[in-house]
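Minimal example, chain plus 2-acetamido-2-deoxy-beta-D-glucopyranose.
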Amino acid sequence: MEITEHTPLFETKKSRGRLIYRSFATSLFLCICFVWIYRISHIKDAKGEHGKWVWLGMFCAELWFGFYWVLTQAFRWNLVFRQPFTNRLSQRYEKKLPGVDIFVCTADPDIEPPKMVINTVLSVMAYDYPTENLNVYLSDDAGSQITFYALLEASNFAKHWIPFSRKFKVEPRSPAAYFKSIVSSGYSADSDQVKELTAIKKLYNEMERRIEDATKFGEVPKEARLKHKGFSQWDSYSSRRDHDTILEILLHKKDPENSKDVDGFLLPTLVYLAREKRPQYFHNFKAGAMNSLLRVSSNISDGKIILNVDCDMYSNNSQSVRDALCFFMDEEKGHKIAYVQFPQIFENVTKNDLYGSGLISISEVEFPGADGCGGPLYIGSGCFHRRESLCGLKFSDQYRNDWNIKEDYQFKKVSLKELEEESKALASCTYEENTLWGKEMGLRYGCPVEDVITGLSIQCQGWKSVYYNPLRKAFLGLAPTTLPQTLVQHKRWSEGDLQILISKYSPAWYGFGRITLALQMGYSIYCLWAPSSFATLYYSIIPSLYLLKGIPLFPKISSPWFIPFAYIIVGEATYSLLEFFFCGGTFQGWWNELRIWLYKRTSSYLFACIDTILKLFGFSDLTFVITTKVTEEEASKRHEKEIMEFGTSSPMLTVLATLALLNLFCFLSVLKNAVLREGGFGICETMVLQLLLCGFLVLINLPIYQALFLRKDNGRLPGSVAIKSVLLALFVVTFFSFA
Ligand SMILES: *[C@@H]1O[C@H](CO)[C@@H](O)[C@H](O)[C@H]1NC(C)=O
Ligand SMILES: *[C@@H]1O[C@H](CO)[C@@H](O)[C@H](O)[C@H]1NC(C)=O
């Protein structure tokens, strides 16, 4: 095909099979209505002392499940898939590509080791993109000298690494990931490359050793400190919560001597920033760091496009910047797009994804669905932004792309030193006082999931966003590798999302009339994660206890009302299994995800709700637990074998264990009665759904029983949890049977 000025830079395809899906969803919805009707019309059938209330509770739970299911349809109704054409981009714009500023954020050198951080930095510095237009900023919220030292080392290593990766078209361009991949793939190439590879690997290993030593001893080598003036900025540093702005431009075209690679080509700009911190000023976590970066970078490079990645998400594809630009630079539709979100893919996920941390149905189904109704959420990492929209510009029909660099900026004649001093002022604590930063400009403050709220408010200003999920994944990160980590992470997410719902940026009212109804519904899927814990808890306790008492809560198998229940169970199970296969999962993986679905709802979300309510009454404060990303050796062996890691005692685990045991006791006792009593198997007719539900809960909790009673390793459930949960479950069961 001939390429003219008018061929689009990207295309959008709708998913196939939409008609089939929509018919299925409609039929399921009908059955949900029948279940509601059944509950209302059969309230007189409720037996037992508090029967009516229990029945009403069942109705409320089913009302919630149905309502929530309807919400999830918003992101399944209209899936779209995007495809950029980078060759067209190069043909038309290769000489006119815009500046791209890349922000890498790190917050704690103990949890996010400097070695990992610089691999991410190197991977984005090595993008296949004109280096004079590429600028990389590292924001270090710990203000750690070790991290600075590691970055300094990385800036020297880049002089070898970038020419090497360009010459041999290396992928991925994170050195650690690349060296690991060639070891595992039994590497073969011409001798020229082997020689250079050996040399560069040696350089890398030496650098790695120096950084690891510095990390271990908590001290920068003396020679390095003497050699580089940047370290003197730590002279006035008192703690990570109390220090001046530390800003160092490590590579910049104004310092060409130092900023060229070994082949004599210019390297990307590289800047280290630790914004000013004072105990009396609230720092607003990552949102605060991002806003400082936005201002500092506008003074140093002013790239029109901003990429933001977490420090544990390295680039796995050197073409991603070009992919993203195809969306922004498209002549017809590009000017409407505020951000392009890539999926977050996790490397440390085992084959059957024991903790459901791959979140694949979100990245493969829900986000393409979000894209079909106005654009995906902004999820904080792996996202390209248009600087203007991130800084608060409202979209208007007159808006057009303009990639030219501002003139006054281009001719700015200041020395590097002056540039540093000027920029430092932009990262001070007081800079934002009486400004719109955090309110209408930059990332919005006041919420632990600042990214989602920012994306929503950008969409509310009329912009569109795009989701691009390439076959070869663009960013790879680390997922939690133990159950407590997973649960804590989800507590934080669901709590933050719930706070969005009750904040002034709620998709429900703030979004009303500004974004499509479908998108409002879609946002609510995540905002309502936490409250869905109540219905799930009810469903996993009450039917089992009533089974124990022999009181039916569902229609019996011979009743026509049984049909809608059966249809929903079979239909939804089959559909979710098929969806999971479509996303590339395994059967075991689906089962694991179902388990995590249950665990999140009965622990993380429950505690998220409790905390939110406490906070409403002014009790606790925003506390942040960063999820650890390194694991000990024994635990990582169990991780590879897919043995669930509990390890610590926490209230969340006690709740999970108690629920598991409660269902086990109910199930065993019913089984015993069925066998011992004459006609005991009659309950299979009268109470089959309750029996199935209880049996399902027992089956899915098998790893908990093992961890309580059978395992001996350190990852088992601690004895204290075992005692507490056995006592609690026994108490509830006995109390209930005699009540
Ligand atoms: C990462 O990139 C490599 C090529 O460098 C590719 O083989 C691999 O499949 C990619 N990983 C993912 C998860 O897409
Ligand atoms: C990631 O998982 C691999 C094996 O699956 C393991 O060797 C490695 O230590 C893990 N890394 C982290 C940081 O947990």
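Residues 18-75+517-738 form one domain. The chain is about 50% helix and 10% strand.
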